[in-house]
Amino acid sequence: MENETFSILLTAWLMLVVAIAAPGPNLVATASTALGHGRKAGLLVVAGVATGTFIWSLASAFGVAAVFTVFPPAFVALKLAGGSYLVYLGFRSLRAAWRNTPGAIRPDTRRLSPLASYARGLGICLMNPKSALFWASISVFVVSSKASPLTIIEFCIAAGLSSFTIYGLYAVLFSSHGAQALYRRATRWIEAAFGAFFFMVGVRLVTA
After folding, report:
1. Which of 56, 88, 134, 185 makes a 20 to 30 Å CA pair with 16?
2. Which residues have CB under 8 Å from 113's CB, separation 6+?
3. What is the pLDDT of residues 93-150, one digit of tens each?
4. How far, in Å, CA of 20 to CA of 52, rounded?
5. Residue 2 and residue 174: Cα distance in Å, rounded?
6. HEC assignment per residue over the chain
């Protein structure tokens, strides 16, 4: 049982890592701030995003678990909805990779205080409406793992740390010269990897 729990949580964590590394609003905010204001401001945005990731992970894991306890059939409905959304994300990313569409990252020249930089990262992470569906998908795996509350909290902490580490690397990268050219060359492959992974996980979630 412990091996099965670990395997399910590992799948959920890999989903999160791939989603963090792939292009999206959090990455755009991090990279744009780092390009326009330097590494320190970029890392403050990252701290906000990581805080938002931790909040989302806690809310989805324990909130969804409470709903499933009160109304067990909701698990099947959420499993189908979450799996379908992952398939949609995968398809959209594979299409973007095929078309090789350019990224939306541009230097942010607006004045930003340290607190405003942190608040920007936190707000973008928490207010993105697509995050709800994504975290609902991950919560299906976390809840189905039957892990203890302590283990789930450890998973949420790992989610926040992973977010800070990956976006932190992006902040460092985009605060250096030549970052945009490097990113443009890698974007297509990042999109393709993201799309393939989530398409497969989504199909597995729907058909399991």
Report:
1. 185
2. none
3. 778 777 776 555 566 777 888 899 999 999 988 886 567 667 877 877 777 778 888 8
4. 12
5. 40
6. CHHHHHHHHHHHHHHHHHHHHCCCHHHHHHHHHHHHHCHHHHHHHHHHHHHHHHHHHHHHHHHHHHHHHHCCCHHHHHHHHHHHHHHHHHHHHHHHHHHCCCCCCCCCCCCCCHHHHHHHHHHHHHHCHHHHHHHHHHHHHHHHCCCCHHHHHHHHHHHHHHHHHHHHHHHHHHCCCCHHHHHHHHHHHHHHHHHHHHHHHHHHHHHC
Average per-residue pLDDT for the chain:
79
Q: Which tokens in the block code for residue 108?
A: 């942010």
The token pair at 166 is 């990956």
